[in-house]
Amino acid sequence: MHRLAVVVALCLGIACAAAVAPPKWPTTYLVEGTISIPYFNITEPVTTNYDGLNNRQRFDFYNELTTNIYDYRNGAGFEVVPRIDRKVCFKSNVAGGSLINVLPDLSNYQYQGLTRVNGWLVENWELTLRNFSAVQKYNMYLYREPGHQGVARPIQFYMSGRNAIFDSHSDIYIMNYHLYQPGFSTPQAYAIPSVCSQSAALPATPSGKKLSVLRKMFQASPVPDHNDEVAAQFAAHAHKFGKVYADHSEYSMRLNIFRKNLEYIEQYNKKDTGMKLAMNHFGDMTYDEIVDVMLPLAKKYCMPARAQPQHTRCDKAVRRAPSTPVDHQIDPRELAALPGAIDWVAKGAVTPVKDQGSWTFGTTGTLEGAWFLKTGKLVSLSEQQIVDCAWGYEWSGPSGNLGCDGGYASGAIQWVIDNGGIALEESYPYLMQDAWCLKTDRSSGVKVQAYVNVSASEAALQMAVATAGPVAVAIDASHPEFLFYSSGVFYLAECKNDANDLDHEVLAVGYGTENGQDYWLVKNSWSTHWGENGYVKMARNRGNNCGIATQANYAII
């Protein structure tokens, strides 16, 4: 009799669980919460106003530090971000875009019973996607009054997904909901900010990486076709880099992009060039997407005057910094006395490869190296402080640094000089967005006396690398061969070296010779999944290939 009662109880429990229906979220709501990305040690406050009826949405990050407003019905998008001590606006045409629902559609999720999350006794709804051996899980935890008759309240969304900033590794993404107001809608939330009505508003938005994170978090990927060999490779690629796609349409589009990139890599590797390409985290991205995310200088408005050809002028007058840089000249006798190879990584003067993609890492890299040479101590300096504080520095208007949207090492170093120092990364961490300038943080103790504009020759660059340590350099990185570089000495006849063709800041950390080919050892910031564990050997003494010696700078501590 007792055993029968237990069986009946279990059956009732199963029937009860089976009767639980997933909630249907409202078409308008207000949500406040935090997004946590453990890999980056980031917990980011976010607020969103969602208006599905009028096809519009607003996001505020870090308590309105940055604001994104999208009116898809009228095709108008606005992004308001800090610029040192005031805010600026980027405008964009968003016609054809779609809303990001931070309350995921649970129609395909399965009820897993009750559990405790953040102190709440919650329902656990789970979606599992299997891509060959890969398993992708999404969990939505929500609270309802006993009996499941009350309005569902979101508590936490948890996913095992990709690093959506750079697509470079699997990771965990968590959304904790602190405030939920169903049916909430106010026209004031979608009013055009006053700064966006001014003529100074910039005509293009930054890359939108942050919204891409949200879109990928809340829209699950479909299961691939297992009968296609390339699709199988694509599924393995998606698992390795934690790729998540919005729907079947996007999955198919990304698969086709992957096919084309894979074919390009395979065809190139049939050539006898001494250099090899390999599939990496860019494999499912179009060329334009990679440029937009990874090469912000490719979208530059104009170059600083010293880098312009004689016949070219910026749209505004150049304002020189009060500390005038000096040109580095080279004596042939000094060059002959230099060592045949230098590796500052092996000497301990270079911090680990980062997974940021920020243009400022070239600046911090040369400062870190110079500090190491002077003190014997290696410190990691704050890229975020330069992003926040060196806006437009040294040059007026849009011709200077543009926060997260790109800039130049010389102006960034000049800002460090004028500021009297720079923060440590641990005290001023990278946020992956523009933020208010906190220039008073000089916690590193690093002070810069001056910086050097190295003369535009490989001989001068060799002297600088050998005697001054790591040097910030700009290159033409806009070629597929560079994007998918894997090993060997990189040389490309089509790679340009004019100042106006340079679109990526990197760090020259040494030089040497491999299989009879002279090379520069260059540190990138595209994670260790790219190149040779994050580094590339670039051709040396071959006509300044890719412009590596065109615009080089280093600091004097």
From TrEMBL:
Molecular function via GO: cysteine-type peptidase activity
Keywords in alphabetical order, please: Disulfide bond, Hydrolase, Protease, Signal, Thiol protease
Q: Which Pfam family, an example, fits this chain?
A: Peptidase_C1
Q: Superkingdom of the source?
A: Eukaryota
SUPFAM superfamilies, alphabetically? Cysteine proteinases (SSF54001)
Q: Can you cite a GO biological process for this protein?
A: proteolysis
Which range is the signal sequence, renumbered to this chain?
1-19
- Domain Cathepsin propeptide inhibitor, residue spans: 234-290
Q: Which part of the chain is the Peptidase C1A papain C-terminal domain?
A: 338-556
Instruction: Tell me its family.
Output: Belongs to the peptidase C1 family.
Q: PANTHER family, from UniProt? A: CYSTEINE PROTEASE FAMILY C1-RELATED
Give the protein name, as stated in the record: Cathepsin Llike proteinase
